[in-house]
Amino acid sequence: MHSFRVGLVTATAVLLLCTPASAEPLKPLRFFEGRTESQGIIRLFMKKPYKSRSFGRGVIEPDGSLLLVQRVEDEGKPPRERRWRIRQIGAGHYAGTMSEAIGPVTIDDVGGSYRFRYRMKGNFAVEQWLVPLPGGLAARNSLKVRKFGMTVGTSDGTIRKILAR
């Protein structure tokens, strides 16, 4: 199970359409441009839950794709780096890579929330949801990890945009 825990809190995850009540919708990849922070609790089958945090820096590349580099800090473990590269491939559809995923990451807009799907080493299937919170500066992040159709891990937390001061 150790092989999939690295992707459980993916602030961590990469795509979000935040719509402040009185503003035009932001471009989806722009939420992760600049600095973000995520916090959450990871629960693995037959293990004690632990806290996870990540600090991200995102850049929109000249081709329009997002490059997000995160410093991930899981309680009791040394920090590590996670990299995402995501691009829009159609209306409400995104694809890319994440350094801890095996194969592609797909992201779909489902009624204003974002569903991520990818696989981790050990044939673990991950489904992650980002749900924008009121105000447009944060999102609820929930994740399930399955193996052979059974849930073997979950994570719940928040991701917030850190505004320049």
Characterise this structure.
It is a single chain. With 165 residues, this protein is mainly β. The protein has one domain: Calycin beta-barrel core domain (Lipocalin, Beta Barrel), CATH 2.40.128.20. Helices cover 2% and strands 59% of the residues. The protein is built from one helix and ten strands, in the order H-E-E-E-E-E-E-E-E-E-E. It has a ten-stranded antiparallel β-barrel. It is globular and about 45 Å long. It starts with a helix and ends with a strand.
- Runs in which pLDDT lies below 50 for 5 or more consecutive residues are 1-26
Rounded to an integer in angstroms, the radius of gyration calculated over CA atoms is 15 Å
Question: In which range does the helix fraction lie?
Answer: under 10%
CATH topology: Lipocalin
| Strand order, sheet with most strands | 1-2-3-4-5-6-7-8-9-10
User: What is the number of domains?
Assistant: 1
Number of helices: 1
Shape-level CATH architecture? Beta Barrel
Order of helices and strands: HEEEEEEEEEE
**What would you call the quaternary organization?**
single chain
Task: Bin the strand percentage.
Answer: over 45%
* Class per helix and strand makeup: mainly beta
How can the largest sheet be summarized?
10 strands, antiparallel, barrel
Number of strand segments: 10
User: What is the assigned CATH homologous superfamily?
Assistant: Calycin beta-barrel core domain
CATH top-level class: Mainly Beta
Mean pLDDT across the residues is 85
The coarse silhouette is globular
Taking the alpha carbons of the first and last residues, their distance comes to 40 Å
